[in-house]
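It would be a great kindness if you could assist me with a short task in structural biology. I am sending you one protein, given as its amino acid sequence and as whole-number tokens for its backbone shapes. I would ask you to consider whether the tokens describe a fold that such a sequence might reasonably adopt. The full record is reproduced below for your convenience.
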Amino acid sequence: MSGYEFTEAGLTELLTTKLDYAPADAARVTAELLVMQPPIRAAFMEWWKSGTLPDHPAYEGFNPATLAVQHGLNPPAAFLTLDWLATDPQTARKALSEGYDTIVTG
């Protein structure tokens, strides 16, 4: 993302200032982003530079762009989910197919 360095500090700053992550969550997500599988990390760098989610790499029928659109994930979450699909496909596919609950108040 333009204006942010691709460093641990830059990633954390992006997550907190642009994507509204809480500081503790930003630190945890940053640590996970820095250890993604190399092809996924390369695609993340592509997004970082261009601001456009790539349609590669693909794992289990998903890529960063489809995860963002079909599952409403922000870019870092889409890349981390793709990394999960690459490293633990059975669990990740099950979680994606089950979705998540929304708590409605009021």
Q: What stands out?
A: The chain has two domains: 1-35, 37-106.
